[in-house]
Amino acid sequence: MIRGIGLDIVEIERIATLLDRQPKIARRVLTPSELNQFNELGAKRRVEFLSGRFAVKEAYAKAIGCGIGRELSFQDIEIVKEPSGRPFISHPDYKVHVSITHTKEYAAAQVVVEETDA
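Structure tokens predicted for Holo-[acyl-carrier-protein] synthase:
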């Protein structure tokens, strides 16, 4: 059964500006594992990566209905990839489906949280 659906879109230029002004934003948004991936990328791809991860985490918070803040932080959400490259969020109680897309100007993400039979 579907527990929630979340959608978010981010202007890549806004994230690029934020990253230039406050480089620590990457450490705030990304988990240590995600930060390792981020650090291996070139400058342009770093901004796309951070924008996409930001959008996914916001979409996930919307899907579970609490938002980023007191109950849930960016560090509580980690996007991992299957061997095929498909992103997902590992959660002990739910199956979390993730879709990320980028254009030149935007990064967008959709998250579907599905309750498991466990």
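The chain is about 40% helix and 30% strand.
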